Amino acid sequence: VKNVIEDMNIKNEVVLDTHLTEELKDEGVVRDFIRQVQQLRKAEGFTPEDVMELTIDTQTSGALIERYQKEIRVKVLADRIVFKETDGEDIVLAEHIFKISLKKKTKHGY
C-alpha cells in the first residue's frame, strides 16, 4: 500500500484501489529479481557475509535495474553491478529477461 486516504464522512466502507501503476509493477519485478539473485547466492554456496560483483546481461531491462541499483546492491550484498554479456543463469520475470552471474569478492579482489 503506497497511499492511504481516510475520509471520516464515510461510515463502515472501505474502498480499495487495485490499479497497478507502472511503478508498482517495476517494484514487484525488482523484488522478484532480488529474490532470484539471493537464491543463486545460496545455490553457489555464498555465505550471508560474502560481498560480490553482480553481472547482468539484459537487452530489455537495463534501465529498470539502474533505477533500483542502490536497493539491489544493498539487499544482495553486491559492491558493484556490471552490465555486460555473461554465460550466467537465466531469469525471466514477466516481460523482463536477464542473464546473471555472481563473482565472490576476496581480499585480493574478484
Secondary structure blueprint with pairings:
Elements: H1 22-43, E1 52-57, H2 62-67, H3 69-76, E2 78-83, E3 89-93, E4 96-104
Relevant terms:
single chain, 110 residues, alpha+beta, 3 helices, 4 strands
Tell me about this structure:
This protein is 33% helix and 24% strand. Strand 3 and strand 4 form a beta hairpin. The longest helix has 22 residues. The N and C termini lie far apart (40 Å).
Helix content: 25-40%
Strand content: 15-25%
Low-confidence stretches: none
Q: What is the gyration radius calculated from CA atoms?
A: 18 Å
Produce a short descriptive summary.
The chain is α+β, with helices and mostly antiparallel strands and 110 residues long. 33% of the residues lie in helices and 24% in strands. It has helices at residues 22-43, 62-67, 69-76; strands at 52-57, 78-83, 89-93, 96-104.
